[in-house]
Design brief:
Blueprint lengths: L2 H14 L3 E6 L4 H4 L4 E3 L1 H7 L7 E5 L2 H10 L5 E3 L8 H4 L3 H13 L4 E6 L4 H9 L3 E3 L4 H11 L2 E5 L2 H10 L7 E3 L11 H6 L2 E3 L12 H10 L4 E4 L5 H6 L2 E2 L2 H10 L5 E5 L2 H10 L5 E4 L13 H10 L10 H17 L2
Parallel strand pairs: 1-2, 1-3, 3-4, 5-6, 5-7, 7-9, 8-9, 10-11, 10-12, 12-13
Bound molecules: 1,3-dihydroxyacetonephosphate (13P) and iron/sulfur cluster.
Iron/sulfur cluster (SF4) binds next to helix 5.
C-alpha cells in the first residue's frame, strides 16, 4: 500500500479523534485491518457497537454488518461503509418478502414457528424475527440461541444458512429426522407440509459459497499426506466437512485454537483465506498454518485501504448506512434478545 494512502488514513484518524471509530471483520485485507480500532468476528463487533461513543462509525465488512451496526447505534451516530456494494451472497438468499410469506403460511396452520436468523441476513429479516418472537445468532453463539429459540415455540425456522443450522442442531443432539430443509422453489408453493409437521427445525436452503468450497476430498488428502496435521473449519462448511474435521467453530474459535496450539503443530484451516493468511504470518515462527483450500470472499475483499482513505476524506458527507425506520424497532428487538441471551 502506498505510504500516502496509509498516511492519509492516519491523518484523518488523528483529526477526527474520538469522533471516529473504525471497525473491521477479520476477513478484511491486512491493509484495512491495520487501520481498524476494533477487529472482530460478527458477534464481537455487534457487541461492541452499543459501547461506542464516536459520532462516526466506519464499518469495514459487508452490508448486513453495517446495517446491524446502524440498528444498534444511537440515533445521533452515523454508520459508513467504504464500499456500499459489498454484500453477502448468503444473506441475499433469504429475501424478506418470501420469508414473510412462508412464515405467514406456517403460522396460519396453527404452529408457533420461531424464526432464528443468522446475523448474516438483512435488516428486514431481523425485523421479521423480532415480530415473530424470534431472534438472531452468530456462528459464535448459535447453539445457545438455537436452544433459546426451541424453548419459545413449537418449531424453529433457522435461516439463511442450512449448514450452520445442521451443524448447530447436531451439537444440541438433534439428528436428521428432527430437521427438514424447506423447498422454497415456486415462491413457497412446493412446501412439503407433512415433512414440515414432523420436524423440530426448519432449515432455509441458503449457504455461504466461500465455505461451501471446502469438501471431504480436501480433508482426506491431508489425512493421507500429513496425518499429524489438525484440521479446523468454520461451521458454515458442509456438515460432512465439519464432522470429518478435528474441530469446528466461529472465527473467534478458530483464532483461539491457533493461539492455543502447541509449538511445532501443523494446522489446516477451512475458512476465508484473508484470516488464514494473517494467522499464518502472525504465527510463522512457531506454527505451520495453511488454508484447507484457498477460498476468498470477494465481497469482503471489496474494501481496500484506498477506499477507506477516500471515505475518510469525504466524512461527514459520505452516504450513510440507514435502515428503514419502519423496521428499526423490530430488528433491534431481535438483536437485543440475542445480546440479552448471550451476555
Ligand atoms: P463469524 O464472524 O460469525 O465467524 O462469521 C463468518 C462470516 O462468514 C462472516 O461473514
Ligand atoms: Fe457472506 Fe460467506 Fe462472505 Fe461471510 S464469507 S460475507 S457469509 S459470502
Amino acid at each position: 500500500m502506498s505510504q500516502s494512502i496509509s498516511e492519509s488514513i492516519r491523518t484523518a484518524k488523528r483529526q477526527w479523534g474520538e469522533d471516529l471509530v473504525i471497525l473491521g471483520h477479520h476477513y478484511q485485507h491486512d491493509e484495512v485491518i491495520e487501520h481498524t480500532d476494533i477487529a472482530g468476528d460478527s458477534l464481537e463487533l455487534a457487541r461492541k457497537i452499543p459501547d461506542q461513543r464516536a459520532k462516526h462509525i466506519v464499518f469495514c465488512g459487508v452490508d448486513f454488518m453495517a446495517e446491524t451496526a446502524s440498528i444498534l447505534a444511537q440515533p445521533e451516530q452515523q454508520v459508513y461503509m467504504p464500499d456500499h456494494t459489498a454484500s453477502c451472497v448468503m444473506a441475499d438468499m433469504a429475501p424478506a418478502p418470501l420469508v414473510s410469506r412462508i412464515l405467514e403460511n406456517l403460522h396460519r396452520e396453527g404452529r408457533r414457528v420461531i424464526p432464528l436468523a443468522y446475523v448474516n441476513s438483512s435488516a428486514a429479516i431481523k425485523a421479521l424475527c423480532g415480530q415473530y418472537g424470534g431472534s438472531v445468532c452468530t456462528s459464535a453463539n448459535a447453539p445457545t440461541m438455537l436452544k433459546w429459540a426451541m424453548q419459545q415455540g413449537d418449531q424453529v425456522l433457522f435461516l439463511p444458512d442450512q449448514h450452520l443450522g445442521v451443524n448447530t442442531a447436531r451439537q444440541l443432539g438433534l439428528s436428521a429426522q428432527d430437521w427438514h430443509k424447506l423447498d422454497i422453489r415456486g415462491g413457497g408453493t412446493r412446501l412439503d407440509h407433512s415433512a414440515i409437521e414432523q420436524a423440530t427445525l426448519l432449515l432455509w436452503p441458503g449457504l455461504c459459497a466461500v465455505h461451501a468450497r471446502f469438501h471431504l476430498d480436501h480433508i482426506q488428502a491431508i489425512r493421507e499426506s500429513e496425518p499429524e496435521a489438525r484440521i479446523l473449519v468454520h461451521p458454515e462448511c458442509h456438515p460432512e466437512v465439519v464432522q470429518a474435521a478435528d474441530g469446528a467453530g466461529s472465527t473467534s474459535f478458530l483464532i483461539r485454537a491457533v493461539q492455543e496450539a502447541s509449538a511445532g503443530s501443523t494446522l489446516y484451516i477451512g475458512t476465508e483465506c484473508n484470516l488464514v493468511y494473517r494467522l499464518r504470518d502472525r504465527y510463522r515462527e512457531t506454527l505451520s498454518i495453511h488454508p484447507l483450500r484457498v477460498s476468498a470472499c470477494s465481497n469482503m475483499g471489496k474494501t481496500s485501504a484506498s477506499k477507506l482513505a477516500s471515505l475518510l476524506e469525504t466524512l461527514p458527507d459520505a452516504p450513510i448506512m440507514s435502515v428503514d425506520p419502519s423496521i428499526q424497532a423490530p430488528a433491534l428487538l431481535a438483536l437485543e434478545r440475542m445480546l440479552e441471551a448471550c451476555r
